[in-house]
Task: structure prediction
Amino acid sequence: LVAGAVPAAAQTFPSRPITMIIPFAAGGPTDVVARIVAESMSRSLGQAVVIENVSGAGGTTGSTRLTTQAADGYTIMIGHTGTHAASVALYPNLRYNPAADFTPIGLVNTNAILITAKNALPANTLAEFVAWIKANERTANNAHAGIGSVSHTTCLLLNSIIGVNPQTVPYRGTGPAMNDLVAGQVDYLCDQVVNVAPQVRAGTIKAFAVAQQTRNQALPNVPTTAEAGLPAYQVVVWNAMLAPKGTPAPVITKLNEALRAALADAGVRARLAELGADLPSDVQVSPAGLQAFIEAEIAKWTPVIKAAGVTATN
Ligand code: MLT
Result:
Protein backbone atom coordinates (compact mmCIF):
# COMPACT_ATOMS: atom_id res chain seq x y z
CA LEU A 1 0.00 0.00 0.00
CA VAL A 2 1.38 3.42 -0.97
CA ALA A 3 1.66 5.75 2.03
CA GLY A 4 -1.46 7.89 2.22
CA ALA A 5 -3.43 5.68 -0.18
CA VAL A 6 -6.99 4.84 0.83
CA PRO A 7 -7.57 1.07 1.26
CA ALA A 8 -10.09 -0.27 -1.29
CA ALA A 9 -12.41 -1.50 1.49
CA ALA A 10 -12.54 2.01 2.94
CA GLN A 11 -13.40 3.49 -0.50
CA THR A 12 -16.44 1.23 -0.90
CA PHE A 13 -17.56 1.54 2.74
CA PRO A 14 -20.23 0.63 3.67
CA SER A 15 -20.98 -2.39 1.51
CA ARG A 16 -22.83 -4.38 4.20
CA PRO A 17 -24.86 -3.65 7.37
CA ILE A 18 -23.22 -1.89 10.32
CA THR A 19 -23.70 -3.09 13.91
CA MET A 20 -24.11 -0.37 16.55
CA ILE A 21 -23.44 -1.66 20.08
CA ILE A 22 -25.61 -0.07 22.77
CA PRO A 23 -24.12 -0.91 26.16
CA PHE A 24 -27.49 -0.78 27.99
CA ALA A 25 -30.88 -2.48 27.81
CA ALA A 26 -33.34 -1.79 25.00
CA GLY A 27 -35.92 0.92 25.65
CA GLY A 28 -33.62 3.06 27.81
CA PRO A 29 -32.20 6.51 27.02
CA THR A 30 -29.07 5.42 25.11
CA ASP A 31 -31.05 2.90 23.07
CA VAL A 32 -33.84 5.39 22.26
CA VAL A 33 -31.44 8.09 21.02
CA ALA A 34 -29.38 5.51 19.11
CA ARG A 35 -32.41 4.13 17.28
CA ILE A 36 -33.56 7.61 16.20
CA VAL A 37 -30.10 8.48 14.85
CA ALA A 38 -29.35 5.01 13.39
CA GLU A 39 -32.53 5.04 11.34
CA SER A 40 -31.47 8.25 9.59
CA MET A 41 -27.86 7.05 9.20
CA SER A 42 -29.12 3.85 7.53
CA ARG A 43 -30.83 5.99 4.90
CA SER A 44 -27.84 8.19 4.16
CA LEU A 45 -25.30 5.33 4.21
CA GLY A 46 -27.49 3.03 2.08
CA GLN A 47 -26.92 0.16 4.53
CA ALA A 48 -28.81 -0.90 7.66
CA VAL A 49 -27.36 0.27 10.97
CA VAL A 50 -28.44 -2.55 13.29
CA ILE A 51 -28.66 -1.99 17.06
CA GLU A 52 -27.16 -4.68 19.33
CA ASN A 53 -27.81 -4.23 23.05
CA VAL A 54 -24.80 -5.56 25.00
CA SER A 55 -25.64 -4.58 28.58
CA GLY A 56 -23.95 -5.17 31.95
CA ALA A 57 -21.47 -3.65 34.40
CA GLY A 58 -22.72 -0.09 33.93
CA GLY A 59 -22.10 -0.20 30.17
CA THR A 60 -18.48 -1.33 30.46
CA THR A 61 -19.27 -4.81 29.08
CA GLY A 62 -20.51 -3.45 25.73
CA SER A 63 -17.70 -0.90 25.59
CA THR A 64 -15.10 -3.63 26.16
CA ARG A 65 -16.78 -5.66 23.41
CA LEU A 66 -16.20 -2.87 20.88
CA THR A 67 -12.45 -2.90 21.55
CA THR A 68 -12.30 -6.56 20.41
CA GLN A 69 -14.01 -5.87 17.04
CA ALA A 70 -12.33 -5.31 13.66
CA ALA A 71 -11.44 -1.64 13.05
CA ASP A 72 -13.30 -1.48 9.74
CA GLY A 73 -16.35 0.66 10.61
CA TYR A 74 -18.77 -2.27 10.54
CA THR A 75 -19.04 -2.31 14.34
CA ILE A 76 -19.45 0.99 16.17
CA MET A 77 -21.07 2.01 19.46
CA ILE A 78 -22.70 4.72 21.49
CA GLY A 79 -20.83 5.36 24.73
CA HIS A 80 -21.67 8.02 27.29
CA THR A 81 -20.53 10.00 30.33
CA GLY A 82 -20.52 6.80 32.37
CA THR A 83 -18.80 4.37 30.01
CA HIS A 84 -16.27 6.87 28.62
CA ALA A 85 -15.51 9.24 31.53
CA ALA A 86 -16.72 8.18 35.01
CA SER A 87 -15.66 4.54 34.44
CA VAL A 88 -11.97 5.51 34.56
CA ALA A 89 -12.11 6.40 38.26
CA LEU A 90 -14.74 3.80 39.17
CA TYR A 91 -13.19 0.65 37.74
CA PRO A 92 -9.60 -0.03 38.80
CA ASN A 93 -9.51 -2.98 36.37
CA LEU A 94 -11.28 -1.29 33.43
CA ARG A 95 -10.25 -3.23 30.30
CA TYR A 96 -10.12 -0.16 28.07
CA ASN A 97 -8.87 3.40 28.09
CA PRO A 98 -11.74 5.61 26.82
CA ALA A 99 -9.27 8.25 25.60
CA ALA A 100 -6.93 5.85 23.76
CA ASP A 101 -8.71 2.65 22.72
CA PHE A 102 -11.43 4.10 20.45
CA THR A 103 -11.66 6.23 17.33
CA PRO A 104 -14.18 9.04 17.97
CA ILE A 105 -16.87 9.65 15.32
CA GLY A 106 -18.78 12.51 16.96
CA LEU A 107 -20.88 13.62 19.92
CA VAL A 108 -24.54 12.69 19.38
CA ASN A 109 -26.42 14.71 21.99
CA THR A 110 -26.48 15.91 25.57
CA ASN A 111 -29.18 15.03 28.09
CA ALA A 112 -30.25 16.83 31.25
CA ILE A 113 -30.63 14.72 34.39
CA LEU A 114 -33.84 14.82 36.40
CA ILE A 115 -34.52 13.73 39.96
CA THR A 116 -37.53 11.42 39.66
CA ALA A 117 -39.58 9.31 42.07
CA LYS A 118 -42.42 6.83 42.12
CA ASN A 119 -45.87 8.42 42.29
CA ALA A 120 -46.57 6.87 45.70
CA LEU A 121 -43.60 8.63 47.32
CA PRO A 122 -44.99 11.10 49.91
CA ALA A 123 -43.12 14.15 48.55
CA ASN A 124 -44.22 16.56 45.86
CA THR A 125 -41.34 19.03 45.74
CA LEU A 126 -37.57 18.72 45.86
CA ALA A 127 -37.52 20.19 49.39
CA GLU A 128 -40.05 17.58 50.53
CA PHE A 129 -38.01 14.85 48.83
CA VAL A 130 -34.82 15.96 50.63
CA ALA A 131 -36.66 15.87 53.98
CA TRP A 132 -38.16 12.45 53.11
CA ILE A 133 -34.86 10.84 52.08
CA LYS A 134 -33.12 12.16 55.20
CA ALA A 135 -35.86 10.66 57.38
CA ASN A 136 -35.97 7.37 55.42
CA GLU A 137 -32.32 6.86 54.49
CA ARG A 138 -32.13 3.29 55.82
CA THR A 139 -35.15 1.94 53.95
CA ALA A 140 -35.21 4.11 50.81
CA ASN A 141 -33.92 2.60 47.60
CA ASN A 142 -32.31 4.29 44.64
CA ALA A 143 -32.51 2.52 41.27
CA HIS A 144 -29.65 2.82 38.77
CA ALA A 145 -28.30 1.20 35.61
CA GLY A 146 -25.20 -0.42 37.12
CA ILE A 147 -21.97 0.83 38.65
CA GLY A 148 -20.61 3.66 36.53
CA SER A 149 -23.83 4.30 34.60
CA VAL A 150 -24.98 7.90 34.58
CA SER A 151 -27.97 7.11 36.77
CA HIS A 152 -25.50 5.70 39.32
CA THR A 153 -22.89 8.47 39.24
CA THR A 154 -25.35 11.35 39.03
CA CYS A 155 -27.39 10.03 41.99
CA LEU A 156 -24.12 9.45 43.90
CA LEU A 157 -23.51 13.14 43.42
CA LEU A 158 -27.07 14.01 44.53
CA ASN A 159 -26.87 11.72 47.56
CA SER A 160 -23.54 13.21 48.61
CA ILE A 161 -24.88 16.79 48.28
CA ILE A 162 -27.92 15.86 50.42
CA GLY A 163 -25.69 13.81 52.78
CA VAL A 164 -27.44 10.43 52.54
CA ASN A 165 -26.27 6.94 51.59
CA PRO A 166 -29.37 4.82 50.75
CA GLN A 167 -29.51 1.28 49.36
CA THR A 168 -29.09 1.08 45.60
CA VAL A 169 -30.76 -1.33 43.17
CA PRO A 170 -28.81 -2.03 39.95
CA TYR A 171 -30.44 -2.75 36.58
CA ARG A 172 -29.04 -3.38 33.08
CA GLY A 173 -30.25 0.03 31.95
CA THR A 174 -32.71 2.69 33.06
CA GLY A 175 -35.29 1.27 30.62
CA PRO A 176 -35.99 -1.61 33.07
CA ALA A 177 -35.26 0.64 36.11
CA MET A 178 -37.92 3.08 34.87
CA ASN A 179 -40.42 0.22 34.46
CA ASP A 180 -39.94 -0.64 38.14
CA LEU A 181 -40.18 3.03 39.17
CA VAL A 182 -43.51 3.30 37.32
CA ALA A 183 -44.64 0.07 39.05
CA GLY A 184 -43.61 1.54 42.44
CA GLN A 185 -40.99 -1.18 43.13
CA VAL A 186 -38.19 1.34 43.71
CA ASP A 187 -38.30 4.82 45.26
CA TYR A 188 -36.22 7.17 43.13
CA LEU A 189 -33.99 7.46 40.09
CA CYS A 190 -31.71 10.12 38.60
CA ASP A 191 -32.35 9.68 34.90
CA GLN A 192 -31.86 11.31 31.51
CA VAL A 193 -34.60 13.55 30.19
CA VAL A 194 -35.25 11.35 27.13
CA ASN A 195 -36.37 8.52 29.43
CA VAL A 196 -38.16 10.80 31.90
CA ALA A 197 -40.15 13.16 29.66
CA PRO A 198 -42.63 10.58 28.25
CA GLN A 199 -43.36 9.20 31.74
CA VAL A 200 -43.83 12.61 33.38
CA ARG A 201 -46.14 13.66 30.54
CA ALA A 202 -48.12 10.44 31.07
CA GLY A 203 -48.29 11.11 34.83
CA THR A 204 -46.72 7.75 35.74
CA ILE A 205 -43.83 9.18 37.83
CA LYS A 206 -42.88 12.44 39.59
CA ALA A 207 -40.00 14.70 38.53
CA PHE A 208 -38.82 17.07 41.27
CA ALA A 209 -36.21 19.07 39.36
CA VAL A 210 -34.01 19.22 36.29
CA ALA A 211 -30.29 19.54 37.07
CA GLN A 212 -29.48 22.20 34.50
CA GLN A 213 -29.46 25.99 34.53
CA THR A 214 -32.61 26.50 32.51
CA ARG A 215 -35.86 24.55 32.39
CA ASN A 216 -36.00 21.79 29.80
CA GLN A 217 -38.00 22.41 26.62
CA ALA A 218 -39.73 19.02 26.96
CA LEU A 219 -40.82 19.52 30.58
CA PRO A 220 -41.40 23.27 31.04
CA ASN A 221 -43.34 22.78 34.29
CA VAL A 222 -40.46 21.04 36.10
CA PRO A 223 -38.30 23.54 38.05
CA THR A 224 -34.53 23.69 37.82
CA THR A 225 -32.55 22.50 40.84
CA ALA A 226 -31.67 26.14 41.56
CA GLU A 227 -35.35 27.14 41.53
CA ALA A 228 -36.16 24.13 43.74
CA GLY A 229 -33.50 24.97 46.35
CA LEU A 230 -30.55 22.69 45.42
CA PRO A 231 -28.40 24.87 43.12
CA ALA A 232 -25.26 22.78 43.73
CA TYR A 233 -26.78 19.86 41.83
CA GLN A 234 -25.99 20.58 38.17
CA VAL A 235 -25.26 17.74 35.79
CA VAL A 236 -25.71 17.19 32.07
CA VAL A 237 -24.62 13.96 30.39
CA TRP A 238 -23.85 13.01 26.79
CA ASN A 239 -23.88 10.24 24.19
CA ALA A 240 -20.91 9.76 21.85
CA MET A 241 -20.47 7.65 18.72
CA LEU A 242 -17.23 5.67 18.66
CA ALA A 243 -15.43 3.12 16.48
CA PRO A 244 -12.61 0.72 17.40
CA LYS A 245 -9.10 2.15 17.61
CA GLY A 246 -7.37 2.23 14.21
CA THR A 247 -10.51 2.59 12.07
CA PRO A 248 -9.35 4.21 8.77
CA ALA A 249 -9.92 7.97 8.48
CA PRO A 250 -12.05 7.73 5.26
CA VAL A 251 -14.43 5.34 7.07
CA ILE A 252 -14.67 7.68 10.07
CA THR A 253 -15.37 10.58 7.68
CA LYS A 254 -18.28 8.66 6.10
CA LEU A 255 -19.72 7.75 9.51
CA ASN A 256 -19.28 11.33 10.74
CA GLU A 257 -21.05 12.70 7.64
CA ALA A 258 -23.93 10.29 8.24
CA LEU A 259 -24.12 11.36 11.90
CA ARG A 260 -24.14 15.03 10.87
CA ALA A 261 -26.85 14.34 8.29
CA ALA A 262 -28.94 12.64 10.99
CA LEU A 263 -28.54 15.60 13.35
CA ALA A 264 -29.55 17.98 10.52
CA ASP A 265 -32.62 15.89 9.61
CA ALA A 266 -35.84 17.71 10.54
CA GLY A 267 -37.55 14.50 11.69
CA VAL A 268 -34.63 13.52 13.94
CA ARG A 269 -34.42 17.04 15.38
CA ALA A 270 -38.15 17.12 16.13
CA ARG A 271 -38.05 13.72 17.84
CA LEU A 272 -35.00 14.62 19.96
CA ALA A 273 -36.53 17.99 20.89
CA GLU A 274 -39.77 16.29 21.95
CA LEU A 275 -37.70 14.06 24.25
CA GLY A 276 -35.76 17.05 25.65
CA ALA A 277 -32.33 16.13 24.25
CA ASP A 278 -29.94 18.89 23.22
CA LEU A 279 -27.80 18.82 20.08
CA PRO A 280 -23.97 19.05 20.16
CA SER A 281 -21.96 22.02 18.88
CA ASP A 282 -20.25 21.79 15.49
CA VAL A 283 -16.89 21.22 17.23
CA GLN A 284 -18.27 18.48 19.52
CA VAL A 285 -19.68 16.57 16.56
CA SER A 286 -16.24 16.40 14.91
CA PRO A 287 -13.92 13.44 15.69
CA ALA A 288 -11.14 15.72 17.03
CA GLY A 289 -13.63 17.75 19.05
CA LEU A 290 -15.06 14.57 20.59
CA GLN A 291 -11.57 13.31 21.48
CA ALA A 292 -10.81 16.56 23.36
CA PHE A 293 -14.28 16.50 24.95
CA ILE A 294 -13.82 12.93 26.27
CA GLU A 295 -10.41 13.81 27.72
CA ALA A 296 -11.92 16.86 29.46
CA GLU A 297 -14.83 14.80 30.79
CA ILE A 298 -12.47 12.15 32.25
CA ALA A 299 -10.57 14.98 33.98
CA LYS A 300 -13.86 16.43 35.26
CA TRP A 301 -15.38 13.20 36.58
CA THR A 302 -12.29 11.54 38.11
CA PRO A 303 -12.09 13.84 41.19
CA VAL A 304 -15.89 13.71 41.63
CA ILE A 305 -15.84 9.89 41.79
CA LYS A 306 -12.72 9.81 43.99
CA ALA A 307 -14.36 12.27 46.41
CA ALA A 308 -17.40 10.00 46.59
CA GLY A 309 -15.03 7.16 47.61
CA VAL A 310 -16.53 4.38 45.46
CA THR A 311 -14.90 1.76 43.24
CA ALA A 312 -16.28 -1.17 41.31
CA THR A 313 -15.20 -4.41 39.68
CA ASN A 314 -16.23 -5.69 36.28
C1 MLT B 1 -29.46 3.55 29.59
O1 MLT B 1 -29.52 3.67 28.37
O2 MLT B 1 -30.05 2.64 30.18
C2 MLT B 1 -28.73 4.59 30.39
O3 MLT B 1 -27.94 5.43 29.62
C3 MLT B 1 -28.18 4.03 31.61
C4 MLT B 1 -27.49 5.00 32.51
O4 MLT B 1 -26.33 5.26 32.27
O5 MLT B 1 -28.07 5.43 33.51
